[in-house]
Amino acid sequence: MTDSDLINACLLNDRSAQCILYERYRRAMYTLAYRLTSDFDDANDILQDTFLDVFRKLETFKGESTIGAWIRVILVRKAYKRLQKPKLWELPNEIPESGEVTWSNNIDGEYLEKAISSLPEGFRMVFTLIEIEGYSHKEVANILGISEGTSKSQLFYSKKRLREILS
Length: 167
Description:
Layout: H1 3-11, H2 15-37, H3 40-56, H4 67-83, H5 109-117, H6 121-132, H7 137-144, H8 148-166
Helix pairs in contact: 1-2, 2-3, 2-4, 2-6, 3-4, 6-8, 7-8
């Protein structure tokens, strides 16, 4: 069954189609939610809230992107709202000239995942969206309601902090 067929069936409140859509995207969305929050319970709550919104607002899906990308944006916004705190974004005193950070080639994946999880929330969110999910600074700024400069700065300092953690 194609995504288009699933969407049409879900719009008709077909419970089996809703289950298929959920199962098709559940794992990837949970992984993203966990990477953004570093908390299993928060990730589960965000996943549930996301799919509730998906099924409630599916008629607003215009098909300008894939359904997976649309769900991902809903999830990121839910995670951001859940993690939003007065000092979510750490603002540096100086803006770096170059955002380039080099990595060692012998980093263990599990160790890297733990290091990413230990980053402050703003750093972790921007790092995950750009470096893991492939969003641009402009897209991250739009999704999170921050400036592109803040996105670039957060990414630079997240990489710098990761390098400190990993060395």
